[in-house]
Amino acid sequence: MTKTIRLTAAQALVRYIGAQQNEDGDCFIAGCWAIFGHGNVAGIGEALHGAKDTITTYRGHNEQTMAHAAIAYAKQLKRKRAMAVTSSIGPGALNMVTAAGLAHVNRLPVLFLPGDVFANRGPDPVLQQIEDFGDGTVSVNDCFKPVSRYFDRITRPEHLLTALPRAFRAMTDPADCGPVTLSMCQDVQAEAFDYPLSFFEPQVWYQRRIRPDLGELDRVASAIKAAKNPVIVAGGGVHYSDACDDLRTFAETHGIPVAETQAGKSALAWDHPLNLGPIGVTGGEPANDVCETADLVLGVGTRFQDFTTGSWGLFANPERKMVSLNTAAYDAAKHGAMPLMADARVGLSDLTNAISGYKVDAGVAARKDDWFGKVDPLTDAPTYNKTLPTDMQVVGAVQRSATDETVAMCAAGTMPGELHKLWKANKPGAYHMEYGFSCMGYEIAGAMGIKIAQPERDVICFAGDGTYMMANSEMATAAMLGISFTVVVTDNRGYGCINRLQMGTGGAEFNNLLAHSKGGENSNIDFAAHAGSMGATAVKVASITELEIALAKRHDIKGPYVVVIDTDPYPSTPHGSTWWDVGVPEVSERAEVNEAYANYKENKKSQRIN
Ligand SMILES: Cc1ncc(C[n+]2csc(CCOP(=O)(O)OP(=O)(O)O)c2C)c(N)n1
Ligand SMILES: [Mg+2]
Q1: Is 126 in the pocket of ligand 1 (CB under 6 A)?
Q2: Average pLDDT, stretch 484-505?
Q3: How would DSSP label each residue in 111-147?
Q4: pTM of this prediction?
Q5: How far apart (Å, rounded) are the C-alpha atoms in residues 568 and 555?
Q6: d(CA 501, CA 519)
Q7: Distances (CA, A) of 180 to 10, 147, 148, 150
Q8: For ligand 1, what atom is nearest to the CA of residue 491?
Q9: 241, 375, 449, 522: least surrounded by Cβ within 10 Å?
Q10: Beta carbon of 417 within 6 Å of any ligand 1 atom
Q11: Does 101 sit in the ligand 1 pocket, CB within 6 Å?
């Protein structure tokens, strides 16, 4: 007879989670972020309490941002571990949907456990339940479906027997990796079932490393051997596959230069002779110039999103071929690329054998010298402090204070572009950019998640005033937990990057900077006081020199440390970049818009649509 144990669904869920390991022997789910309400406090809350010695429960302040912390944790650990996030029903659950979108775009694992309405419908409509007049099975949690790699509604306790293995399969599958939502009906969480004991035996989830199909390998190898000036585009998959060393060896063996996407940056050290640096809209001239004429583009672990491809205007050589080495067939076949569906590490190793003897001479050094000759001075400290510093100078100050263990992190605003272009990442993991969703509000919570993942690292978060205002409450969580990281708040009084985009598309400056917003002149936010009130150590500095002095103190500060500096909203690095497709109005009474539209039509011609 099968041995069973009588547990509630929530207890079974927590027990199963505690038994799932990665190949290093760590519990795959490192902890659970929780905000309780009637939809999860009695069920999941009781179960988490019962397991508190094996699974750490973290109390957050906002469901979206506690999920950001969980996602950043998984990203920094290259998807080797993840976290769970549980909420009540209705608003608490919906607050997590944005974070689910973020994890989905970035292919990052996270286990969402929103409470759901009663499966038995006894109290219908329970507090916070929406009512669909035409479909009795709908709840707000259906909003998770398009932003989950696997979604299941647990309406019977025994559903977990099939749902949980599927959930872990999705979170640990390199190709299919992403958020999982198990929508936990409130009554079911508390219902008991006789679960087989074997269900809770420890299980190891190994990282699957798919080898290339021999036909694909052959075709791709022939294409590469015929190429005269190939380029590699390194994406986030290089990191997730632990393939940074393999990429370096591959590049060196064959002399092929490497351009880095936002997610790929730091795969090679910035000063590696074959590292062309950042690619695309936020890229630099070395990578973009090489990509423009390349006759073969070898994407490794990249989604080829529009910032990478210059909205598909960048790879302009009419004869060029695309190859996409990717663990996901979906990405491997994008834009007519020759697919090489494989794990990056074993794929590169098989490919190097298949093209053995092939070597090109890329001549990267002069391009890099020219680039750094132009951009390095932008990051120097100003020689006088009479005008507002630029964001580039802030990047420079942080760079000068960086250690071997620094992680520069960000997600939205001016800084992702500046950092992609200017930040000199010394080793893999030194750069953490959420640029799939570029979600304002990821930064502060994300920095906390990174520090939980790697306590030995020196985490520096770049946050604009806009992003700070969008979501900052996990600062209080970090203060409470004594989690140390540094937040550099660049206060340019508004949405600087969107203001520049507005101007670039012929628009009047409107509703972005506070100065151009209704009532904006009345806004006078004291960011240091605000952060201080949540328990952070906070200081406002008046110059780049003061910023450097303040940054030097960070290593002695326990808990979050916030350094606020006013910056100029207008300048940004005037070098590099490519065209980016942003819809410009076809008709307008503004001459500037008409001019921008004419430009737009011209640029649109460079976009390859196949
Ligand atoms: C949640 C979310 N809402 C809106 C946007 C669009 N957006 C991108 S950057 C930005 C402004 C960012 O302002 P701030 O953080 O102050 O950075 P700045 O550009 O001023 O340096 C906006 C509104 C976004 N990326 N994410
Ligand atoms: Mg701003």
Answers
A1: no
A2: 98
A3: EEEEEE--TT-TTSSPTT----SS-TT--GGGGGGGG
A4: 0.98
A5: 28
A6: 22
A7: 16, 9, 5, 5
A8: 16
A9: 522
A10: no
A11: no
